Amino acid sequence: MEQNVGSTDKLVRTAVGAVVGAASIATLAGVGPLPALAAPVLGVVALAMLATAATGTCGLYALLGVSTCPADGRASR
Fold this sequence. Notes:
Elements: H1 7-29, H2 38-55, H3 59-64
Pfam families: YgaP-like_TM
Domain Inner membrane protein YgaP-like transmembrane: 1-71
Keywords: Membrane, Transmembrane, Transmembrane helix
């Protein structure tokens, strides 16, 4: 699968993944105001965001034909 996530998109995904991951951990620890069921959901979202940032590929972007990576010359937002 070719890369379709640009550098700015990677930075945003990393930041959002870190914040959502911290919220998941806070919920697991009982510190966060969210119900306990939200912790695993937030954890999966955080892992997905961090994985797509690390690999530079997003399955949803591929399905929709979107690319924020300027390397292929067809960046669309």
